[in-house]
Amino acid sequence: MRVYQQQGFTLIELMVVLVIIGIASAAVGLSIKPDPLQSLRKDAERLAQLLQVAQAEARADGRSITWRANAKGFAFNRYDETGQGIDDFRQDSQLRPRNWDTPSMQVRIEPRPRLVLNAEWINPPLQVVLSDGQHSLQVERTAAGQLRVVERP
């Protein structure tokens, strides 16, 4: 008489393991809550990066760049090379006008109502406050020119 040793798993054992994995993943999936700041944070980080790009462009070119925003989106512009017309960067892949991902964005610039990026290497501190009505984030520029996103209480 020969005795055979088991060399694998039975179908029942595999099904039990799959059911346990399914229950565990469902429990984890239900416990994860969506981040209410996700789109606001994405907009703030994108703005910080684009302000850095615009600042570098203003320093390289020597012409000031103005940033304007409303509830739907934002745009950069400057006087063209002749000084007569406005360059709105529509053909620029980075500084082109953009829409916010956050619906009904509220924007406030502190300490003054306009944001102008010029060729100066040292600029006064600046804060751009972005709000979706419930949450607020701010993009801060230090005197050294560094930009960072900070959550507001």
TrEMBL record:
The lineage of its organism: Bacteria, Pseudomonadati, Pseudomonadota, Gammaproteobacteria, Pseudomonadales. It comes from the Bacteria. InterPro entries: N_methyl_site, Pilin-like, T2SS_GspH, T2SS_protein-GspH, TypeII_GspH. Keywords: Cell inner membrane, Cell membrane, Membrane, Methylation, Transmembrane, Transmembrane helix. Its main location: membrane. It is a single-pass membrane protein. This is Type II secretion system protein H. Belongs to the GSP H family.
